[in-house]
Amino acid sequence: MLQTMLSQEVMTKAAQRLMKLLPYKKHSDVIKRAWQLYRTGHVYNVTVENDVLKGKVTDRGHTYEPSFRLKQAAGSSCSCTTVGLCPHNVALFLYAYNQIDVVGNLIRQWKEPTAKQKHARQKHAKQKHAKQNNIQVSQQPAEQREKDMPPNGNIIEAWWDSFEKAYRRIPLYNITEEEQMRRLVHFFFEMFERPTAKKPFLDHLYYVHASLFTFMKMTRIPQQPWSYSAMMQERHVNQIVQSVQQAIKDLAKKPRTKLHEQLIYASIPYARNILSGELTYFTQILDVYKTIWNNLFTDPSYREEECNWAIKKLNEKETVEQKIPFIAAASYVSFLLENDHRAYQLIEPFPYLATEHIIDFMHTSFAKKQIQRGAEWFHRLEKNMESYLHSLHMTDRDWFVRTVLSAHSQYSIATKSDETERYEQLLQKLLPYSFYMYIDYLFDEQKWKKLTELYMLEKANVDMIPPYHLKSVEQADRSLALPLYHQTIMYYIEQKNRSAYEQAIKHLRKLRAHYRALKQMPRWEAYIIKLAEQTKRLRAFQDLLRKGKFI
Predict the structure, then answer these.
(1) CA gap 234, 237 in Å, rounded
(2) Angle at 380 between CA 331 and CA 420, to 5 degrees
(3) Could you report the per-residue pLDDT of 273-315, keeping only the tens digit for each?
(4) Which of 24, 33, 343, 514 has the greatest CB tally within 10 Å of its CB?
């Protein structure tokens, strides 16, 4: 896939070279044309090889094949025969740049650096976008928008009405789900200027609502079956999540008046909208929900009201899938209210949700220096881990094991306890999915008997065991290796073919050497006689025993 073949460093340096070759002030026509071609989906079939981008660009009814040299942009070419860099070269680069960063950020960086010029250009760009697409979104300061409202009007409702009207004017028909998301991120959302720290509270609140609206619309677009497009959908959603979370955190830093507090409270129903998104984006939805309730809606009365609302909603739903978002919401807000009993009761029957929530609650408690509280959350996970493990899909059990063991590590650090015995008990209970981690633990702790017993339990032959493990066991206590060789020899004999028999003979020689070193040759002789009797019908193996002078 393209994004896995592009180096962040190479793309960043290429962008810097391109901006020097084409200063925005002198080449704005080329850059704007390239930006338009990229945004409207005229770039496709893009590949990269030896730091050279190649692809196709349709422009005014013609198809061109530009190539862009990432390490020597001036040497780029295009079938349009333009001398020097053309809009098709630049559009091709913008398409590739989108794989590592937001193109809008690059365009803004390309323009003049001074704050006043930057502000003027952003305003002009928004007006141009709105004019080109017949979209009208008020760009007045939030205070002015409030003054323009009727005395009893709901300013937030008016904002969402304006967002909806603007959204309806975006051409989203007869295009893929991934392209719908691309337009929402790179066209619709970029019309809203992110306020600076000096901007007033209402400008920040307006931007939060614009980002929530965009996020809500995106998480209602179904994700396609796993493919490149599905991966890009996930990428677009993750991109907007970061914007929403940052907007919320910026707003939370602003001082509030009584009016502002009223508007914060009035924002709660709009924040709830995100819980109705597609479950395929549940992780992102929950991340945004947690951020807004952790940073913005901090009043305990708001949180108690939200918890009651979420519990009421989950009781109204019929299926588990419908209930899950509200269970997660009610549990998280209960945790914020320090009602851990209710938070746990809500999630305890749902392994996936419970695992992620409990880990989050544990980490948060430890971060707040609430050590006992964090320890109790780990104990809840420990109590349920075996039932949770076997309730999960097979492909997720390794993830669960790693999660539990990592949680124990965090628990040990926070509580300053060295509970190696408890860690080993966890490893035992999580078998067979903890096998490799348990093996490493036993080797590090030099518990050779348990190490060999675990290999025997997993029916491992000596050829499957790391040589340094086997050598360490043999050096520590040669007798511990004997059962492993017995098991290995029988494994190869049961294959019933010449090459397997030869492997068995090789290990018989090693086994005989161990018995001799242990001065237990009578045991060896009894073993080889019995083995020869058991395999008397296997002529090829019997021939090898005679050639090896075992019988």
Answers:
(1) 5
(2) 140
(3) 999 988 999 999 999 999 999 999 999 999 999 999 999 999 9
(4) 343
CA 477 distance to own-chain centroid: 45
Residue 534 pLDDT > 80:
yes
b/e burial code for range 327-354 (CB count within 10 A of at least 16 → b) = bbbbbbbbbbeebbeebbebbbebbbbb
Distance CA 340, CA 328 (A): 13
Q: What one-character-per-residue DSSP string does 68-122 give?
A: EETT-GGG-B-TT--SS--HHHHHHHHHHHTTTS-HHHHHHHHS--SHHHHHHHH
Residue 62 host element (H or E): strand 62-64
Angle between helices 420-429 and 397-415 (to 10 degrees): 170
Q: Is the pTM of this model over 0.85?
A: no
Sign of CA pseudo-dihedral 306, 310, 316, 322: positive
Q: Are residues 479 and 518 in contact, defined by beta-carbon separation less than 8 angstroms?
A: yes
Q: For residue 54, what are the β-bridge partners? A: 47, 67
Q: Which two tokens stand for residue 144?
A: 């002015």
Q: Are 85 and 21 in contact (CB under 8 A)?
A: yes
| Number of other residues whose CB lies within 10 A of the CB of residue 297 | 21
